[in-house]
């Protein structure tokens, strides 16, 4: 794909490559406020993901994301698929062909917590969208191993080091970003060589992909679906005053039907043996980051569901 591109056109100067479920949306939004940075309006165009259909990776559309940038602005996008090897292969190579001087920001979260969060996201929003949980965590992990692979940060980083120097990567802690966005933004601005606007841009709370709200919608849909099939009941429900509707939904959710729905919509826990196996893998990965990049993982203390 990359060899067919017009390398004289504008490509990103840097990329926020992940990790998924680690605050990349917030970081993208913070960086978009800086006058010397141009962040793509489409946060995750996934242009360098070979699994995305070719018609969705149109070069003109991709270049168009950066058409409004000034010549002196740094351009960027934030596709978290770019750190999902081996599900998404060859991303660093493809980027190197169009910008060998590209830089990468990698926001890292406690790997076990990120893995479990990614499991819920993939199940609920992507792979088995809107379906209740029918598999154990272990069964799902075998079915969709990227939820663990994307938490093996060393494996992702090594792919980039095949094509880019170590100094082109900035590794950041999600947990520290949550606690102190100002200091994290300062690191980013220093890395990019732009004016430090961390005090101005770092004062708002983190963006949150609202899983609780999504679950509430799912719960309501799942419990009301059988009742909507009763002839005439839907018309009666739609004519109810809003307060009576809310009271009826609350009563149904507390009923045996609601309790059954809640059980089916609650993600299964990680078994202790699975947790230990994953933690051993992630500990080895973290040790590599600490040794090679001086990454401080002291704030990681997994309490993912188990």
Briefly summarize what is shown.
The protein has 306 residues and is an alpha/beta fold. The chain has helices spanning 24-32, 59-64, 91-98, 111-127, 137-143, 146-149, 153-161, 174-179, 181-192, 198-201, 211-228, 233-239, 242-254, 256-265, 272-293; strands at 14-18, 37-39, 74-77, 103-108, 169-173.
Describe this structure in words.
With 306 residues, this protein is of the alpha/beta class. The protein has helices at 24-32, 59-64, 91-98, 111-127, 137-143, 146-149, 153-161, 174-179, 181-192, 198-201, 211-228, 233-239, 242-254, 256-265, 272-293, and strands at residues 14-18, 37-39, 74-77, 103-108, 169-173. A 5-stranded parallel β-sheet has the order 2-3-1-4-5. α11 (211-228) packs across α14 (256-265). The longest helix is centred in the C-terminal third of the chain and has 22 residues, at 272-293. Residues 210-219 have low confidence and may be disordered.
Topology:
Elements: E1 14-18, H1 24-32, E2 37-39, H2 59-64, E3 74-77, H3 91-98, E4 103-108, H4 111-127, H5 137-143, H6 146-149, H7 153-161, E5 169-173, H8 174-179, H9 181-192, H10 198-201, H11 211-228, H12 233-239, H13 242-254, H14 256-265, H15 272-293
Parallel strand pairs: 1-3, 1-4, 2-3, 4-5
Helix pairs in contact: 11-14
Helix fraction by DSSP (H/I, runs of at least 4) = 40-55%
Strand content: 5-15%
Question: Structural class from helices and strands?
Answer: alpha/beta
Subunit organisation of the chains: single chain
Shape: globular
Strand order, largest beta sheet: 2-3-1-4-5
Distance between the termini: 42 Å
Q: Give the beta-strand count.
A: 5
The radius of gyration over CA amounts to 22 Å
Helix/strand order: EHEHEHEHHHHEHHHHHHHH
- Low-pLDDT runs: 210-219
């Amino acid at each position: 794909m990359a060899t067919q591109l017009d390398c004289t056109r504008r490509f990103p100067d840097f990329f926020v490559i992940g990790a998924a479920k680690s605050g990349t949306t917030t970081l993208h939004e913070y960086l978009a406020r800086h006058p010397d940075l141009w962040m793509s309006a489409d946060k995750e165009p996934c242009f360098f993901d070979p699994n995305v259909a070719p018609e969705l990776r149109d070069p003109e559309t991709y270049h168009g994301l950066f058409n409004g940038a000034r010549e002196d602005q740094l351009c960027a996008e934030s596709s978290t698929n770019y750190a999902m090897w081996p599900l998404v292969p060859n991303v660093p190579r493809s980027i190197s062909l169009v910008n060998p001087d590209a830089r990468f920001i990698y926001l890292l979260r406690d790997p076990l917590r990120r893995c479990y969060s990614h499991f819920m996201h993939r199940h609920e929003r992507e792979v088995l969208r809107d379906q209740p949980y029918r598999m154990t965590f272990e069964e799902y992990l075998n079915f969709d191993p990227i939820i663990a692979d994307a938490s093996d940060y060393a494996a992702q980083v090594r792919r980039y080091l095949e094509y880019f120097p170590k100094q082109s990567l900035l590794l950041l802690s999600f947990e520290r970003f949550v606690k102190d966005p100002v200091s994290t933004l300062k690191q980013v601005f220093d890395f990019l060589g732009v004016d430090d606007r961390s005090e101005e841009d770092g004062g708002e709370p983190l963006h949150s992909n609202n899983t609780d709200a999504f679950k509430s919608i799912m719960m309501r849909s799942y419990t009301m679906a059988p009742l909507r099939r009763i002839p005439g009941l839907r018309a009666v429900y739609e004519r109810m005053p809003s307060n009576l509707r809310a009271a009826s939904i609350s009563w149904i959710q507390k009923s045996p039907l609601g309790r059954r729905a809640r059980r089916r919509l609650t993600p299964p826990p990680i078994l202790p043996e699975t947790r230990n196996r994953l933690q051993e893998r992630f500990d080895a990965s973290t040790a590599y980051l600490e040794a090679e990049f001086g990454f401080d993982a002291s704030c990681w203390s997994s309490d993912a569901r188990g």
